[in-house]
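Slide 14.
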Amino acid sequence: MQGNRVRPLAVVTGASSGIGAALARELARHGHDLILTARRATALESLAAELRTAGAVASVLVADLSVPGAGRTLARDIEALGRDVDVLINNAGFGDAGPFVEADPDRIDAMLELNVVALTALTRAMLPGMVRRGHGRVMLVSSTAAFQPGPNMAAYCASKAYVLSFGEAIARELRRTGVTVTTLCPGATHSGFAEAARAASLPLYRSAVVPTMTSEQVARAGYRALVRGRPVLVTGVVNKLVAFSGSIFPRAVVWPVAKLLLGDATVTHK
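Slide 15: predicted structure.
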């Protein structure tokens, strides 16, 4: 509570670390209560305790959104808490580096379930209440990888292209409802993502040309975009140039840039 006013409630998926945790802190700092969800209970409880000391009511719902049907289940668990959701941050996601032909099929399935299916299901579950109440904010965390095909991270880049397209489309659909949708597209970020995706050795994360931002920098910029209702935000000037070059230049230019950032993923017959 703030005086006699109920604080707005935000749901953050993938809140146990990285950009998700930084966004949760940013929301708490600006007067939101939180529902935090991810797979790692210990990390979530630690963050919730931190946010409570800052005056937020913070609840934890442990969920693995890479499991089929988990998005709908989480939506029901949130509804059972009995509070209207004012802000939804769909941040949970992971990547996988390497040639697609060598990728683990189970890992691909889990990645698409998390990055695409659960994100879509949770958004679909939260939006009707927001529209009915005439206010609400949704953030979908995509990536600069959404703007061009990415050999060596093919399925991941495609999943983030879906998020960007989906976010822009529903933002347009909802423009007269009081509900906004912001798609956040960070570039290389110190967040633990690269290590989990087995991508830390890729040129993108070692480039002096494309600076790596901190999770806190991305979260601050993302929060400002969320409050303003911006449909899309690419964080960082260089990231903007790299992202939009994919839609401006022909593929003959795009492919060498992709190779420069993601390495050579050419598969040869053995």
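Speaker note: Residues 105-133 form the longest helix (29 residues).
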